[in-house]
Specification:
The chain is mainly beta. Helix content is 4%, strand content 46%. The model has no long low-confidence stretch (mean pLDDT 85).
Amino acid sequence: RDGRLVMEADQSSDLDVISMNVKTARVKIAAVPVDLLMDIPWRAGRYYDDDDDAMKLLNPVIDELVTLEKEPNRVNITPLSLKPALNKAGLGFAFVELRPRRTRKEDKDNWFRPMTAFVQVTDLGLTVAESGDEVLARVASLKTGLPLAGAQVTLYDRDMKELKTATTDAM
């Protein structure tokens, strides 16, 4: 129900929704600012009631009813564009909330619990190794696989307090 994923910037920025026998869903997509990078995935993973609604902390750039079912009793794929939530270079963090609409009349609540995705669209790959109180970070181009010199890496604690900032070399 809840996912976290990384998408390469040189690929499509569409998130495919795979569904079967779900006619419509309310879709909300929002950009995630850096200061909420820890809070949004945490809230999305523990959504029980409106107090944990991660979308309440954001300003959705998309909030619409989307038709998912093209053919009944078949797997349907519906692409959702993340572009409105990304920067001009097509990079950034997006939060997607998809709430399928119930169709049975006996259901008193018309909406299912939302499915969410926390998505990073990037052209960089980060590999981190931790040993005791030391951290090694390697930043590489996803396109070439080569290490990047001059990339700024910042280490934060769980409260998003900055602990250390360093610049990578090409090793």
